[in-house]
Amino acid sequence: MNTMRNKSMFAILTLMLLTSLLAACSGANTTNNGNDKPATTNAGEATNNGDDDAAKGLTGEFEIQYFVGGYGDTWWKHVISKFQEANPDLKITQTAGSQINEQMRPRWIGGTPPDFVYIDGAGSNESQMVQDGQLLDLTEFLKGAKNADGKNVLDIAIGQPTDYSGKNYTMPLVFGSWGTFYDKAWFTENGWETPTDFESFMAVSEKIKASGVSPYIHTGVYPYYINGGLVNSAIVAANGGDGSIISRMAALEEGVFKSEPVMKALDKVVQMRDAGLIDPGSVALNHTDSQMAFLQHKAAFIPNGLWLENEMSKDIPEGFEFDFVPSVMQDKGQKYVAIPYTASVAIAEKAKNPEAAKAFLQFIFTEQFAVDWAEMTGAIMNVKADLESSSAGPVVKSAMNYFNSDNLVVAPALIVNADVEKALQDGIIALLAGKITPAEWGDRMEEAAAAARP
Q1: 299 and 385 housed in the same domain
Q2: Is residue 192 domain-shared with residue 334, that is, in the same domain?
Q3: Which residues, listed in sequence order, are joined to residue 190 by a DSSP beta bridge?
Q4: What Cα–Cα distance (Å) separates residue 26 from each residue in 3, 18, 45, 84?
């Protein structure tokens, strides 16, 4: 224990005993309710049942920072209490809340950060933390990291860590995916087939159009929905299912925005447009308006993220049955493509107890905790797990079935600066409106990329 380095062995043993006794008697279950002060609690009421072999005998002080937002804090308290059970001599402090990133900023800047951090919510920026040297290099650690079940963490992960010039500083905890959503019950009622590729998507969309319903609606006010849910997966599919083209786009590689795969993908979008399959009113709709139109069966398909069901939970009509397809733009015989959005965990470069932080990371990445995450948050954790017998929602279960399948490619997320992002959003709206061609889209993007390069 670092704080006792210069004390006698007697003092060490005495303090360790006191810590253990205090931990056993602590009633620490306070939460942050959005006040200005972060919630700082000691997770120490549990006892060691000897069930978790991955992390035993840890001592000292260990601080965890996590953002409390749409996923709540139930799962965090659950896994931290289990980690405490496995390590009764470890003094764990939880620092959490909806404003935690801003509240903790002075400590990160001042060099006294917590040991372990969940990077999510307003005021957090993973790439900036890496750039500022605030996060520990986890590259070698992750290569050999095993969870409590003896499985390699990277082997059971759906998505891999972000590559920063050959190094990893974070591990994705939350795995969400863009995709195409539809009402399964309504499709069954009308005899409409679930699309498995672009050909079947176009065919069923023509049937839907013939019935008087708009086949496809999107959020025109926020075009990143259709870029994430349709265009980017089309680009990966047109690149033979190789997601590296997204990394090339993110790196603003010269010529990539006019490359053959990108042009092929945009040509499919134009085919949808020219066939009249995309609701022309979409351009004026925000996310809730387009989602309400979708729920009211004014349109059959909508591109969105896995949060859709939870976000619209109060407005879902009786009998509506959400379902999800990761992508619809691949050719027949090609794999599905998942375009992810993630939130990661990391260890501070200046962590006071990096051993505990590493043990905690290994501890939480198990299939059981992934099931718990799905049940407690309504979302998917970055672990391949069987959710069929769980109480998770149908969309989460459907999505996980895809992620557990070999018939899926998980592409990188496309992360670019604000100017290039605006060009992407403006470009897809102009293309859908018929104001520009795919080649002109490419010209626009190459110009924006050139301006953004160092």
Answers
A1: no
A2: yes
A3: none
A4: 21, 12, 5, 12
Q: Are residues 76 and 107 in the same domain?
A: yes
**Residues 148 and 246 placed together within one structural domain of the fold:** no
Model pLDDT, residue 378: 84
**In whole angstroms, how far apart are CA 227 and each of 80, 118, 146, 173, 276?**
37, 27, 36, 23, 19
| Torsion, CA 30, CA 32, CA 35, CA 38, rounded to 10 | 90
- Domain of 226, CATH number, reads 3.40.190.10
For position 6, what pLDDT does the model report? 40
Note whether residue 229 is domain-resident.
Answer: yes
**Alpha helix ranges (H) inside 70-158:** 74-86, 100-110, 126-131, 139-144, 153-156
Q: How many CB atoms lie within 10 A of CB 451?
A: 11
**pLDDT computed for residue 152 by the predictor:** 98
Between strands 60-67 and 116-119, the pairing is: parallel
pLDDT reading at 101 higher than 70:
yes
Rounded Cα distance between 324 and 399, Å, is 7
Residues 118 and 225 in one domain: no
Proportion of the chain above pLDDT 90, given as a percent: 74
CA–CA dist 368, 230 (Å, integer): 32
Residues 294 and 239 in one domain: yes
| Pairwise CA distance, residues 327 & 338, whole Å | 7
Tell me which residue of 141, 139, 143, 142 sits closest to 166, measured CA to CA.
139
Question: Which residue range is the domain that position 28 belongs to?
Answer: 2-173+343-392
The pTM for the full model equals 0.74
Q: Is residue 403 part of a domain?
A: no
Cα(112)–Cα(218) distance, rounded to whole angstroms? 45
- Residues with Cβ within 8 Å of 307's Cβ and at least 6 positions away in sequence, in order, are 70, 176, 379
